[in-house]
Amino acid sequence: MPVTIKSAREIELMREAGRILAITHEELGKAIRPGMSTLDIDRIGEDIIRSYGCIPSFKNYQGYPASVCVSVNEEVVHGIPNKDHIIREGDIVSLDVGVIYKGYHSDAARTHAVGKVSPEAENLIKVTRQSFFEGIKYAKAGNHLNDVSSAIQAYAEKFGYGVVRDLVGHGIGAHLHEAPEVPNFGGRRKGLKLRAGMTLAVEPMINAGRYDVEWLEDGWTAVTDDGSLSAHYENTILITEGDPEILSLRSGEE
Prior knowledge:
The protein is α+β, with helices and mostly antiparallel strands. Helices cover about 25% and strands about 25% of the residues. It contains four helices and 15 strands. A hairpin with a 2-residue loop joins strand 4 and strand 5 (about 105-115).
């Protein structure tokens, strides 16, 4: 699949998808509390998405059974919501959510602290989020994709964290996953040259320990190989001639 340059109309639709997704994440962040199940989170998320006339991007995507990927503590991504998985004080919970608005996707993830968490957990969440912003400083027309990837890796590794290799970001638009792949780690090649009108989902997944992951028997949930905590932060961005536009972030939000 070639990398697509979005038209003005497509960008407007993706802006609206991103706006609704940002609201969804904001409401989910307010709702998370000890004692609720990961399935409760999924139901709330789906209700919010559908209340705006949107469709959850993830539900039934390649067989995934839910609308919100809910990953707790050592779960890196794609955790399947379950009525028996109860959120507890001190957990960190990563929510990966996508919405479809009039045929166009937006994809974003946030990691939340549940009540009082350990200093280690708090720092991991903070660094993972900041690694995204360090990366997108280079996400402008004329730069290369590897500039973004290398900046994410360099920032996270300063703290001794592991940058997941087995899972990467992606292009996005009329399809949830489009070209190109967007690694969170640098490579030997410069990679794709960025052009205005490209839309990308940039999503650092950072482990407190080693970068290695393994998959649970459900075939979806990726967990840290060493049992360390993991955090996830993602936004859908639009490449411009200047600074990128973050489509899935509300004004004033970080």
